[in-house]
Amino acid sequence: RRASTKTTYERQMTLLRDIGMAALGGSILGISTSAYLALVGRVTGMSGTLRSSYLQLTGQTGPNPMNFIYLGGLLAGGAVMHMLYPAGFEEGGYSTAMMVGSGVLVGLGTTIGHGCTSGHGLCGLARFSKRSLVAVVSFFGTGLITASALYWVMKSDWEPVESPPDSFPRANMAYGVWASASLLVAYGSYLVRDVFHILSAFGCSFTFAVGLSLSGMLKPTKVHGFLAVNQNWDPSLAFVLGGGLGVNLLLWPTIMKWHAPIARDAFDLPTSVEVKPDLVYGGILFGLGWAIGGVCPGPGVVGLSGGYGMSMLMWLLGCVAGQQAAVIIPKLLKSPKAPAKSLKSDADRKGSSSIGGMDEATPLQ
């Protein structure tokens, strides 16, 4: 009986510790997103940052160099945090097929649905956006239902395999992360040529990576433990959103009263208010992918530095492929005989995921 009591006590203490770290990490995420709003007047969104950077590097859209700096800051933050706080990263790997499939679904869903947990969750809800509320309910609801339904079927697949040794390819992944971060920041800085903008993007993204590392969001096992509701349910990750959203709800009303952000002449926020079906369709696809792989765009980038970095790389390749498909498929489906229609209004573009547009998850365009 004493052993059983001790085990229960230890589990309770572990849960309290995890809740505390989740709340701390979430609060840091809120500070990062609020700081970015105050400095450059834009929302923070990981899926938009990843998508925009890829489309720029492949020449499909014009240069928005702040994206490169932001992405480089995420990579650098992840690399530093893996050295300082390796407990925030999950050691081991996952099935390549599962990670690629999850990434494709998330890439499709976040592009169609115009955002992810950061853009819609942390920032959209803080702006009281109805569009973001619909998206969050769609992907959270789908994620909870899917993970709970698949728990007993995929439980073994959701456990990471043995941690890889500190040698090839893990060591080469670490070098690759540092090299990629350096190149992205250097190239973006060369194009931006404004020290304050460079420091703003890098500092906020680095801080965002710190928050993710502390929160537990970099561990797919934690995400599955939260999304799969059963007798072993782990509610700690709810405090990530609670902490981040709480900070933003406190700070954003004050920031939005300013005439302009610190480093720019005006705020540049999404203006579309129309709730469209694609928010639901995209949210469902995102929720499916999130439930299967336990990864969303921010953790996918920051997690490259962990022991399961190769699995995260496979996930990112799938995510980028899904994002690309979401851009190409509508063009292919459009009838060539249809008369050319005028482009969307500027207001509608602000809520669109099209190339060059800006949505709840595209802070840096």
Please give a handful of descriptors for the protein shown.
mainly alpha; 14 helices; disordered C terminus
Kindly describe this structure.
- The chain is mostly helical and 365 residues long.
- It is 66% helix and 0% strand.
- α1 packs antiparallel against α8 (195-215) and α6 packs parallel to α11 (277-293).
- The chain is globular and about 55 Å long.
Describe, in short, the structure shown.
By secondary structure, this protein is mostly helical. It contains 14 helices and no strands.
Major sheet details: none
One letter per element, helices H and strands E, the order comes to: HHHHHHHHHHHHHH
> What is the number of strand segments?
0
Q: Strand pairing plus helix content: what structural class?
A: mainly alpha
Radius of gyration: 20 Å
Oligomer: single chain
Low-confidence stretches: 1-5, 338-358, 361-365
Percent of sequence in beta strands: under 5%
**What gross morphology would you assign?**
globular
- SS summary, helix count: 14
Which bin fits the share of residues in helices? 55-70%
User: What is the terminal-to-terminal distance?
Assistant: 60 Å
Overall residue-averaged pLDDT value: 87
